[in-house]
Design brief:
Blueprint (H helix, E strand, L loop, with lengths): L1 H19 L14 H9 L1 H17 L6 H25 L1 H13 L9 H5 L7 H6 L9 E8 L8 E7 L6 E7 L14 H9 L3 E5 L11 H16 L5 E11 L1 H11 L19 E5 L26 E6 L7 H14 L4 E6 L12 H24 L1
Parallel strand pairs: 3-4, 3-5, 5-6, 6-7, 7-8
Antiparallel strand pairs: 1-2, 2-4
Length: about 400
């Protein structure tokens, strides 16, 4: 029926509008409901186009377009497709944005400073087949997941998963990943899996961990759990093929906050009760659309801004310029403060058209970020190797 075609076109158009021009709130807030209408098509415009194309072909086959309602629906589908093309174009702009960020943060000759063998493993092209035809399929056959390993005494909240290549190489660099969820929700097997599986397939050992959540847990409980994960990697990482001396900590949203604070407070006994002697320093930190404290209010004592100093490790920060949950202004301020204090490089990639939670799928934008993270990590690892 033409009314069904019209509803489909209208719904796709409605979501596309929010992907193109999400209303900007005055301050960072996890309660911005407009985010939910547009974030999916903002990362997967091709899925929206396939949906419209299938609906249009079905309407043609049933001669629904011959009616007035059908023509209205068809016109709306065309306009929505043009909007989705703009969304896709914004995604394509992520590649030059991250390239520029690497050059600004590491220097224009950063590529020449990477170990030749490591540089050969860096991906040169986006995985278009996955982006266009399999954005939801994040698992890889060459990677195994060892699930639900306990690292603390808080039950399910203190479980972690280890991702590693099935070839089980030894002394692979380690990535610790922390999920988002406003410190109140989330789990270890949701965000950033395209990144985790990519690195694991390249010989990394990736650890994705749960941590205690609010309201039962309060600061510094979340951070203490993160420190326990780092200590666990140092003690048990070799059992899974990890090099415990090369540890990157990463996270998304609230996880980006925790990764940043953990990186800025190495070996701080105040956040390591009962394991004060454990080494919780990291080689570098990676924060994706992280929360750092709002410019419009006094940040909490847990804010990374409270711990910025000259001893900070290298940082990679990525944030969407259209994020409606954590405003890009807050990320810019954090990077500005970090760069003014730290003696180490800070790479800041501001993603054109990027919303919150851009790391769920094999999208153009996130695959560009994945490649940039791998390049950043290769640079850090090469510098560590050259100074050893």
């Amino acid at each position: 029926m033409p009314i069904g075609y019209l509803v489909t076109a209208a719904l796709a158009g409605f979501c596309t509008v929010f992907a193109l021009a999400p209303p900007r709130p005055r301050r960072s807030s996890p309660a911005n409901r407009s985010y939910w209408f547009g974030f999916l098509l903002n990362e997967l415009p091709f899925v929206g186009f396939y949906w419209l194309l299938a609906s249009t072909l079905l309407a043609l086959g049933q001669r629904d377009i011959a009616s007035k309602v059908g023509w209205v629906a068809f016109a709306l589908a065309v306009l929505t497709s043009l909007g989705l093309a703009v969304v896709a174009w914004r995604g394509l702009r992520a590649r030059p944005a991250v390239d520029l960020a690497l050059s600004d943060g590491l220097g224009v000759s950063w590529r020449t400073q990477i170990d030749a063998e490591t540089a050969l493993r860096l991906r040169r092209r986006l995985p278009w087949a996955r982006i266009l035809f399999g954005p939801f399929f994040v698992r890889r056959r060459d990677v195994e997941r060892v699930a639900n390993i306990s690292y603390g005494d808080a039950g399910k909240a203190n479980l972690l998963d280890v991702y590693r290549s099935r070839s089980q190489p030894s002394r692979g660099p380690t990535l610790i990943y922390l999920h988002g969820g406003t410190f109140r929700s989330g789990r270890k097997d949701k965000e950033a899996r395209p990144l985790i599986y990519r690195l694991a397939s390249q010989g990394w050992v990736c650890v994705s961990a749960n941590y205690r959540l609010s309201p039962a847990a309060t600061f510094p409980d979340h951070l203490i759990d993160v420190k326990k994960v780092i200590a666990w990697v140092r003690e048990h990482g070799q059992e899974y093929g990890a090099d415990p001396m090369i540890v990157f900590v990463a996270g998304s949203s609230a996880g980006g906050h925790l990764a940043s604070v953990a990186a800025l407070t190495p070996n701080d006994p105040a956040f390591q009760p009962g394991f004060e002697a454990a080494d919780t320093s990291v080689s570098a930190a990676i924060s994706l659309y992280g929360y750092y404290g709002s410019l419009d209010s006094e940040w909490q004592p847990s804010s990374p801004l409270e711990f910025v100093d000259a001893k900070a490790p290298p940082f990679f920060v990525a944030h969407g310029d259209r994020d409606t949950l954590v405003l890009v202004d807050d990320a810019r301020h954090f990077v500005e403060q970090l760069r003014s204090a730290s003696s180490q490089p800070v790479v800041y990639a501001e993603l054109p058209g990027g919303q919150h939670t851009f790391d769920l799928f094999h999208s153009i934008r996130f695959e560009s970020v994945v490649d940039a993270i791998e390049a950043f990590a290769a640079w850090v690892r090469s510098r560590i190797a050259s100074s050893a």
